[in-house]
């Protein structure tokens, strides 16, 4: 009986997808991001070594996804999350900042907000070593500012991920169009993009990307055939 049978997919295929999606297929960069050596990553990819459950949680944390996504090889919602310390996501956070006193905490919070050292309320609370609930009670105005800042940051990240996914879609679309001499179907682009990057597109997302890709081609063609003005 094999141990750690939670590994469901072929190891090389699974880690290859994650590596290609997050770090353009550069193994050493992916290993450094995960906080492990290249040898450990090679062992996981070959299937000779299986990551422990705590390490699996760390990998999921660093890739901004669920543990199930790592197990199944899903790359739909991956993003790079810096690891502050090995297995830091598993360590309980100490919340003893309240011992400093309110005035000291408020002064530190003002400095954090003004300097932009925290992009959301959670980061500010972690830096102050207090809970988010305590932070809201301590400074509701600054907390509201941080919540708004976090919402704007998440929106920016969402747009950035969407553009990243469209770039992957459009690259497959353009490549297939050049190879075949006609505009490819959505299904053909889906298949090519998944084979190349491991990205799966949702139906509505694919429809929108297909319209955008076709519009880009039409604009390029119209510029090529537009008559030049006589001198």
TrEMBL record:
Domain annotation HTH cro/C1-type: ranges: 30-70
Domain of life the protein comes from: Bacteria
Protein's name in the database: HTH cro/C1-type domain-containing protein
InterPro entries (UniProt xref): Cro/C1-type_HTH, Lambda_DNA-bd_dom_sf
TM annotation in the entry: none
Native source species: Paraburkholderia xenovorans (strain LB400)
PROSITE patterns: HTH_CROC1
Gene Ontology MF, one: DNA binding
């Amino acid at each position: 009986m094999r141990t750690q049978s939670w590994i469901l997919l072929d190891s090389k295929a699974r880690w290859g997808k994650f590596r290609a999606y997050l770090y353009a297929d550069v193994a050493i960069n992916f290993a450094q991001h995960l906080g492990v050596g290249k040898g450990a990553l090679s062992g996981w990819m070959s299937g000779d070594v299986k990551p422990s459950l705590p390490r699996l949680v760390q990998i999921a944390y660093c890739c901004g996804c669920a543990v199930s996504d790592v197990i199944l090889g899903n790359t739909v919602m991956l993003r790079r999350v810096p690891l502050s310390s090995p297995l830091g996501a598993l360590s309980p956070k100490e919340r003893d900042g309240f011992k400093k006193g309110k005035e000291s905490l408020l002064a530190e919070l003002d400095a954090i907000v003004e300097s932009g050292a925290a992009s959301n309320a959670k980061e500010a609370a972690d830096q102050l070593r207090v809970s988010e609930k305590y932070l809201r009670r301590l400074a509701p105005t600054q907390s509201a500012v941080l919540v708004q800042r976090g919402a704007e940051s998440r929106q920016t990240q969402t747009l950035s991920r969407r553009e990243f996914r469209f770039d992957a879609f459009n690259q497959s679309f353009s490549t297939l169009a050049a190879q075949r001499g006609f505009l490819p179907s959505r299904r053909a682009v889906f298949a090519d993009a998944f084979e190349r990057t491991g990205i799966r597109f949702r139906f509505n997302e694919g429809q929108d990307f297909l319209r955008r890709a076709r519009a880009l081609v039409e604009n390029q063609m119209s510029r090529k055939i537009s008559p030049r003005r006589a001198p």
